[in-house]
C-alpha cells in the first residue's frame, strides 16, 4: 500500500511550506535546502530510527531529490508560492494526512502495537516541522494554538481501530486519511484555533 | 533488576514536572501531552537508539500511558501541583536517580564499557529535559547553574566503580541511587548553585 | 583509511571551538563539557544512527576523552584560545574536512549510494554544531551567511565522483579534503559571506 507519486508530491510540498515558513528571516540557499529537507524527511527519519527500520530515503534517494527540488523552488520563486500560501496549506494538509497514515500502516505491518502506530503517525506528521522550527529558532507548533496535530491524532486512531477489522486495510486508510485532511482543512478554512479552555495562558497575557 | 512500579511513578512525575515547567507560557492540551511524554521518555529513547536497543516503550506502552496521565494531570489540575512544586522537585530527583542507575545498569549488562555507562546514565537523566526545553523555546539546563547533572555524574561513577566489585549489583545500585538523590535533594533544600569559579559569566553580566 | 591521531586532534579542536562559541554566555563546567562533547561527536553519532552503524565512540571511548579534554581546556584556559581564535578556525576547518570525507568514505564502504554519502558528509561536518547551537539557544549556522557547509558540499561531491574512478581512494580523499579546507580557509581569510543574491532577507532588514 504505497502511493509513490503522491508521496513525492507530498514530500516536495512539505519542503516548500517548510522553507516558506522561514524565508522571511535571513536565510541562504544552503540553509533553505537543509531546512526544506529536514521538514520533509525529519519526522519519517525519527520514526524509522525508533521502530528499527532503515530510514526510508537511504535506499531511495528520490525522496531527498523531491525535497531538494521543493526547497530550491521555494527559495528562488517563493514569492509566487507566497501568493498561493493558503492553497499550499491545503496541500500540506494532504501531505500530513498521507504521511501519518503511511507511518501508522508501516508500524502495524511490523506487528508493533496500535498505540505505537498512533504515536508514530503523529511523530511523522509533525516531527519534521518541529525540527525545522528548532533549527530556525522559531517557536514550535507545540507552543501555538494551531489545530495541526489533533486531526492527525483523530485520523490515526480511526485507522488503527479499523485496521484488521471488517473493512480491508485500504478502506481503513482512506477513512483515516479523510478524517485528517477534512478536520485540518476545516481548521484552515475557518481559521480555527484550539479553544481557550484547552489552552493555558500566562496571567499576564501580554508577555509573549 | 527492574523496579517496575517505581519506574511508572517516576515516568509520571517526570511528565508532571515537564509540563509544569512550561505551562506558564501559552500551551494547549496537545502540546502539553507531547512535552510531557518527551520529558519523561526522551532521554531513555536516545539512550536506546545509541546502544542499539529497541526503545523501551515500544514493547510496553505503559510508559507512554504513565507519561500521558502525568502530562494531562499537570495540564488540568496543575495549580494543585504548583502549590506542591518543591515537593515535586524531590520526587523528580528520585526519578532522575532511578532512571540514571537503571540506564547505567542496562548499558553494563550489554557488556559496554563503564565510561559509556556513565555517559548514558547522564543522558537518560537529563536528555528528556533538554529536548523539552528546546521544543518549548526555553534556555536549557546547560545554560543555568542549577545542580542537576553533577549528582547524576557522581552517582553513576560510584555505581560503575562498584559494579562487579565486592558488593552485589543491587547494593552498588542502591549506593549510586542514594548519592544522586542525596546530593540533588541537598541542592534543592539549600538552594545551591554551581559555585562561581565553575561558571563563566559574560563580563557584561546584565545582558541575559 | 583512518587517520586516528588526526581524528583525535580534530575531535578536541571541535570541542574547543564548540565551547568557545558559547562561553561568552553564562555556562558552568558541566554545561561546557556536554556542549563540547555534543559539538565534537554529535554529527557523527546522528550519521551512524541513520546508516545503522553503532556510534563510533561506543567501542572507542578515546573520542569522548579527546572531546572532554578539549572542552575542559576551553573552559579553564579559554582566554588563551580566544587570542588565537582565528587560528582555531583554520584547525576547525581541517577537522570539518577530515570528518566529512571520513563520513562519506564510511557510507560508500557500506555500499550505500553516492548521494547518501554526500548527505552524510555534510551532516557529520555541521550536525554537531547545529545541536550545540540549539542546546545553547544560539541562532544556528543555517540562519547565518557564513560559508561553512558549501565547501563541505563541494568536497564531498568531488570525493564521491572520484571514488571508484581512475585515482585510488586515498587520492580521491585527498582531493575532497583539499577542496573543503581550501575553500573554507579562503572564506575565513577573506571574511567571505554568502553573496546577497543567494540570501533572503526580510524587507525590513533591521528586525534581526
Task: Give an overview of the whole structure.
- Three copies of one chain form a homotrimer.
- Chain A contains eight helices and two strands, in the order αβαααααααβ.
- In chain A, helix 1 packs across helix 2 and helix 1 (4-20) packs across helix 5 (85-109).
- Chain A is 69% helix and 2% strand.
- Chain A has one domain (4-196).
- With 208 residues, chain A is mainly α.
- Chain A has helices spanning 4-20, 29-51, 62-76, 78-83, 85-109, 114-136, 149-162, 169-189, and strands at residues 27-28, 199-200.
- The longest helix of chain A has 25 residues, at 85-109.
- Strand 1 (27-28) of chain A pairs antiparallel with strand 2 (199-200) of chain C, so a sheet runs across the interface.
In summary, what is this structure?
Three copies of one chain form a homotrimer. The first copy, chain A, has 208 residues and is mostly helical.
